[in-house]
Every structure is written in structure tokens, then in C-alpha cells.
Design brief:
heterodimer, A: 285 residues, 11 helices, elongated, B: 282 residues, alpha/beta, Rossmann fold, six-stranded mixed beta sheet, four-stranded antiparallel beta sheet, 10 strands, disordered C terminus
């Protein structure tokens, strides 16, 4: 059998080039396809993606509606609470999407197969990041539409800064996801709780529902060192005062670059540590 | 080589010799050691595998088999020493050769919710296979899993999962196949079929196989060469027939029991022995 016939019949695999950008994109794509298959395999998962942010949006939306009837000028700010909820959910859902997809590989005991395949660690991270955005879109687009139809809150009223807010929040979620994934890789599923709780650590510090000025001075310094704080301050500024300070955005992006680099280095360090400690052969235990 | 031993396979014996020299070996392990804290899992082992040989890593629980295979795969980093696969240092440059090897173990699974075909498609993408549909169809036919392709992997029996795992491991037609207990938890019929397939694959492709096993029948049937580990050290390295003769036993199982029960000093000493200069006291 000639080589061409053997390849056409599948008797021989036609191995494509293994290095370079195209090879990396192919492997990242293969992993994203794996996550699409997974989501498609369960309607419950799909519903769950929308269910929690939808409930969250309903709760805060009705609270906003109630407060709008009071005399507080802040409470009457158009959709500040719903805006906060939706932006917080971008951060939280993206982080959860990144982390749970990684944990899923450990639950299914598939990580050993992945890490012995030609997949590089940065490709795994890229696939998880890309998938977190896809998953986020599936989750948030219907909820944002529901907020518009139920409460008349149009997320797009935030204008162009919304795109920047989205980018800042997603980048922060990746930093958090990388740290969680690294810790779980090193310490096993016993550290799984971290994946769920790490984002909540930011909830009081990022001033999601109140301005930074509410915090004591020393805590304000910490809050302003976190990129999402600038997003929530910016959102309030747009909705309450119809102004937006672009400097806030550059600060947030600059901080994100530092956190993202730190997140990737942390993940890489834990991966090396897991290889040294042999935890990759005891995954799931 | 000891010509008195009636080896069933002269080529295998030559393979053992070539493997020991390390010349042109797909796998070359030099002075490899792995500590987990105070525990020595692998203790200064050196070996190499000749192209086209099937080699068994044999030893009791905790002998260091899985750790050795994990270091060959790059899943575990050595504490000291070196692992080279197709010339690449697996601690630093695993990516350059990962497409030339593959791996199967009962301790890893393919995602349960995905169908068999979906899983194989994903791994075809990861291994850079340009003709995935044809390759999957061919492998499915060869391993008799065609009727399983559209079933969720998690719903398969142990035997079916093993065949699917093997399909994933053979997808890229690896030159080096690493297997950790390839027939664990399988009924004798399925286990026998898997062994036959592995043997056929290795012989038809000239592929190198390294497998860890507790199953002596499996080792005798598959292996050209046996590397016997105890407490992380290589204590024997030869063909199954050589080991049986060395220990003066009737079967490899008796040799294994001697080793794990610390009775190896009763073995028949050979003057040319260089692998086991001194045994630890039982």
C-alpha cells in the first residue's frame, strides 16, 4: 500500500507540523471543541449557565425598582445596582468558567492524557481563557437581554466603555483562574473550594455596590490596586454623573497586565511544583 | 549474552543488548532518581530501550514502575539524572517529541460525557492528525469499537473502555508506546485480545513498547525483555527466559515472588551478572 493510499484509508495518520503558531492554534481549537462537546452533552449545564445570573439580576433588579421609589438620589441612579450585578457577573462567571473547566479535566481524570499529549501548558491556558469568554457570552447575553425587557436596563447604555469594562473584568478573571488552577494542580481537588471562593474575596474590596470613598483610607489603597474597582467606579460615574475618566481605564489595564503576568507565573510555578511532587500522577485523589 | 539460555527469540536477546548500550535508543535513562520527601521512589536507575523491543517493567507495589513511566512521559520531574526520549530531555523539551509517543493507563480516563468519536476527534486534533475521520474509522475497525463510536465513553464497560483507551493511544501510530498495567481489571478473554493487539502493533510497526505490569503471564507473552524493580532499583534486566534461569525457577511468577518476598539471594549466581552485585537482606 502506497503512503498516499495508506493515509487516505486511515491506515497511517497524516501527522501535521507540530511546531509554530498554526500547530498551537490547532491544539487550542481541539481543546475548545472538547469543551463545546461537553456543554452540548448536557442541557442542564446550559440552563445552569443562565439560571444563577438570571436570578441574581432579578433580585437586584427588583431592589433597584423599589429604591427608585425612595427619595435617595443615589438609589434613583438609573440601573446602578443592575449594572453592578451584570458587571460583577462578567468577572465572576468568567472566573468560574475558567476554573470549573480546568477542574472538569481533573474530575474526569483526563488531565494525565492532556499533559502527555503535544499540548503545551500555555495552549491549555489559552483554551481555558477562550472558553471562559465563550461560556460567559452564552451566560450573559440572555441575562442582559432579560434585564432590558424586564427592567428597561440597557447594558449598552454604558457605551464604548462597556467594551473596556468587559476586557478589564475578563482579564482579571483569567488572573484569578490561573492562580486557582495552579493551586488545584499542586494540591489536588482538596483545594477545589478555592476555585469558588477566590472571586468572592474581591466582592467587598472591588466596591461592586458602593463607592470606594465608603472604605477606610488604608482599604481604599488596596481597593484601587484591584483592576475591577476602576470598572465599578467608572460604571457609577457614567450612570450617575454621565462622565467617564479614561485614566481609570488605563490604570485598570496596567494593573491587569501585572496581575495576568503574575497569574501565569504562579500557574507555571505550581505546574513545575506538581511535576516535582508527583501530584500529576495522583490527580483526583 | 548467555548463549546457554534457550531464548524463544534471538532478536529479543539482541534487543536487550542494544538497549543496554543505549546506542540509537528511543529511550535512554541515565542515573535517574526520584525522591518524594524522605521516600526514594526511584533510585539511580539507568537503562535504554532498543527500537522495536517490548520491555516490561516488573515489580511489586511501590517498586517505582509508575514513577519511572511518569518521568518518561514528563509528568514527573526527576530529582536527579536524565530521561531522554528520541534524544529530547523530557524535563525540558517534552513538546518536541510528544507526538511520537503515546500512553495508556487505567489511572487516567477519557472524558465520560463525550462520545468515543468525540474523544478521539479531540485527541486527533491534539496530536495533529490531518486525516482524523479516516484514521478514527480505521482504528475503530481495527480495535472493533465501531459500534461504540457514538456512545458516551462513561457508559462503556471496563473492557470497552480499555479498547477505547488503546484507540486513543494508537491514534498517532506512536513509535514509543508507554502502558501502565494495560490489562488491569479485564476479564481473561479481553486481556488476551489486548495483548495480541499490542504484540501485533509492535511487530508490524517496529514500535517500542514499555509497559508496567503485575501480570506474569502478560509479561512472558509480550516482553522481549524484563526490567525488574525493587524499592526503586533495577535488580534484574534480561529476557524472561534469562530471569527464570537465573533464579532457577519454573516460571516468571516464581521469580517475581522471590523478589518481592526478599528471597532473591537464593537465585543462581552467574559470574557474568552485573545487574545485581549485592542484594539487600530480607
Amino acid at each position: 500500500m502506497s503512503a498516499a493510499v495508506a493515509i487516505a484509508s486511515g491506515a497511517e495518520p497524516m501527522l501535521l507540523p507540530q511546531s509554530g503558531v498554526r500547530a498551537s492554534l490547532r491544539r487550542i481549537g481541539a481543546l475548545v471543541v472538547r469543551y463545546i462537546y461537553l456543554l452540548r452533552s448536557s442541557g442542564v449545564r446550559l440552563v445552569e449557565l443562565i439560571y444563577w445570573p438570571f436570578l441574581q439580576m432579578l433580585t437586584w433588579g427588583f431592589l433597584q425598582k423599589y429604591l427608585a421609589g425612595t427619595t435617595s438620589p443615589y438609589a434613583q441612579g438609573a440601573g446602578v445596582l443592575i449594572g453592578s450585578v451584570l458587571l460583577w457577573d462578567i468577572l465572576f462567571r468568567s472566573k468560574i468558567g475558567f476554573s470549573t473547566t480546568f477542574i472538569e479535566e481533573m474530575w474526569s481524570r483526563n488531565l494525565g492524557n492532556l499533559l502527555t499529549s503535544p499540548l503545551r501548558p500555555f495552549e491549555l491556558v489559552a483554551a481555558l481563557s477562550l472558553w471562559s469568554v465563550i461560556r460567559l457570552s452564552v451566560s450573559m447575553v440572555p441575562v442582559a437581554l432579560a434585564a432590558y425587557f424586564i427592567f428597561g436596563f440597557n447594558l449598552l447604555d454604558l457605551g464604548l466603555p462597556l467594551v473596556a469594562f468587559f476586557v478589564v473584568l475578563v482579564l482579571t478573571s483569567w488572573s484569578l483562574g490561573l492562580i486557582s488552577a495552579g493551586v488545584i494542580l499542586r494540591y489536588g481537588l482538596g483545594a477545589e473550594e478555592l476555585a469558588w471562593s477566590l472571586a468572592f474575596l474581591l466582592l467587598p474590596l472591588c466596591c461592586v455596590y458602593y463607592p470606594v470613598s465608603v472604605l477606610p483610607g488604608w482599604l481604599q489603597v488596596i481597593a484601587l490596586a484591584l483592576p475591577p474597582t476602576h470598572v465599578f467606579e467608572g460604571m457609577r460615574s457614567i450612570l450617575l454623573h454621565h462622565t467617564f475618566d479614561v485614566k481609570e481605564l488605563w490604570w485598570a489595564l496596567g494593573l491587569n497586565a501585572v496581575y495576568l503576568l503574575g497569574g501565569y507565573l504562579t500557574f507555571s510555578w505550581f505546574l513545575v511544583s506538581a511535576r516535582e511532587n508527583g501530584t500529576l500522577v495522583q490527580l483526583g485523589e | 549474552m548467555d548463549e546457554r539460555v534457550d531464548s524463544p527469540n534471538q532478536a529479543a536477546r539482541e534487543g536487550v543488548a542494544a538497549g543496554r548500550t543505549g546506542a540509537g535508543s528511543p529511550v535512554a535513562v541515565h542515573d535517574l532518581t526520584k525522591f518524594y520527601g524522605a521516600v526514594t521512589a526511584v533510585d539511580h536507575i539507568s537503562f535504554s530501550l532498543a527500537q522495536g523491543t517490548t520491555v516490561a517493567l516488573l515489580g511489586g507495589n511501590g517498586a517505582g514502575k509508575t514513577t519511572t513511566i511518569a518521568m518518561l512521559l514528563g509528568l514527573v520531574m526527576p530529582s536527579s539524572g536524565e530521561v531522554r526520549v528520541f534524544g529530547a530531555d523530557m524535563s525540558r523539551n517534552r513538546g518536541s517529541v510528544a507526538h511520537r509517543l503515546n500512553f495508556q493507563s487505567p489511572y487516567v480516563d477519557l472524558p465520560a460525557r463525550l462520545t468515543v468519536k468525540q474523544n478521539l476527534t479531540v485527541y486527533a486534533g491534539l496530536y495533529g492528525i490531518g486525516n482524523p475521520a479516516e484514521r478514527i474509522a480505521h482504528i475503530a475497525l481495527d480495535l472493533q469499537i465501531e459500534e461504540l463510536l457514538d456512545r458516551p465513553t462513561g457508559k462503556l464497560s471496563a473492557g470497552q473502555k480499555t479498547r477505547v483507551g488503546l484507540a486513543k493511544a494508537l491514534l498517532n501510530a506512536p513509535e514509543l508506546l508507554l502502558l501502565d498495567e494495560p490489562t488491569a481489571s479485564l476479564d481473561p478473554d479481553t486481556a488476551d485480545w489486548i495483548r495480541w493487539k499490542l504484540k501485533h502493533y509492535a511487530e508490524s510497526r517496529g514500535a517500542t513498547l514499555l509497559f508496567a505490569s503485575h501480570n506474569m503471564a502478560e509479561v512472558e507473552r509480550l516482553a522481549d525483555r524484563v526490567i525488574l524493580l525493587d524499592a526503586g532499583r533495577i535488580i534484574e534486566d534480561g529476557t524472561p527466559a534469562q530471569l527464570i534461569e537465573t533464579y532457577g525457577k519454573a516460571t516468571l511468577e516464581e521469580v517475581f515472588l522471590d523478589v518481592v518476598r526478599g528471597r532473591a539471594r537464593e537465585r543462581v549466581q552467574r559470574p557474568e551478572d552485573e545487574v545485581l552485585p549485592a542484594r539487600k537482606a530480607s
